[in-house]
Specification:
This protein has 180 residues and is an alpha+beta fold. It is 28% helix and 38% strand. The chain is elongated and about 85 Å long. The protein binds coenzyme A (COA).
């Protein structure tokens, strides 16, 4: 990018100035089972993703009903399963999923700022391993309009389209299954 001169004693030296961009440090991504204390960040992620990502497929009233603004962290904590898995990036929870022993996926969410970066794939691969190890014959879920293309990409097929009551609203989702 240029040249520079420096003098050592009576001698003048000519240096080349070279420059190379340095890639920003990649965050450390880890996957682990949830533990006490995770309920607050998970509930916040759940609501934030619904309000910022799922809003493109549902009405404002549906989004607010789904986000369950009255639900407390305590109540969410009570419903967390042992088989809830979280993905962390540099120590922050950026995705989570809940798995029942029969292969039912109850929740599957990535942080709005981390969409399309492979975290969903990471989580899904882990759920497949867990479900197989538990003896489940398939994975199945009630999948949002937003997440349907992702689940199809992961080998799930639609079994039924449903209209489910959520608060005073009715939301469209799809019962989808992936057999092993
Ligand atoms: C669905 C969701 C979890 C996917 O997570 P993600 O980290 O963005 O997914 P990935 O980056 O691992 O994508 C995996 C593949 O699916 C594809 N994909 C993901 N979302 C897609 C979309 N909306 N349309 C088309 N393809 C999509 C990706 O292109 C990628 O394809 P590739 O294998 O060719 O690279 C995420 O979009 C999300 O949080 N959605 C909102 C919450 C939600 O609706 N959850 C389900 C509740 S039932």
């Amino acid at each position: 990018m240029g040249e520079d001169l420096f003098q050592l004693g009576r001698t003048v030296y000519e240096d080349w100035l070279l420059q190379r961009d340095v890639q920003p440090a990649r965050p450390l991504v880890t996957l682990r089972r949830c533990r006490s204390g995770d309920a607050g960040p998970i509930l916040a992620l759940f609501r934030d993703t619904i309000r910022r990502v799922n809003r493109r497929d549902y009405t404002a009233a549906q989004v607010e009903a789904w986000a369950q603004p009255d639900l407390t962290v305590h109540a969410w904590s009570a419903r967390l399963r042992d088989a809830t898995f979280v993905v962390e990036a540099d120590g922050q929870i950026v995705a989570f999923a809940e798995l029942d022993p029969d292969g039912h996926i109850d929740c599957f969410f990535c942080h709005a700022d981390w969409q399309g970066q492979g975290l969903g794939s990471l989580l899904m691969e882990h759920l497949v391993c867990e479900a197989r190890a538990a003896g489940a014959e398939s994975l199945y879920a009630e999948v949002s309009l937003t997440a349907r293309p992702f689940f199809e990409r992961k080998g799930f097929a639609v079994e039924a389209q449903q209209e489910v009551p959520v608060g005073k609203q009715r939301l469209t989702n799809f019962r989808m299954r992936r057999r092993f």
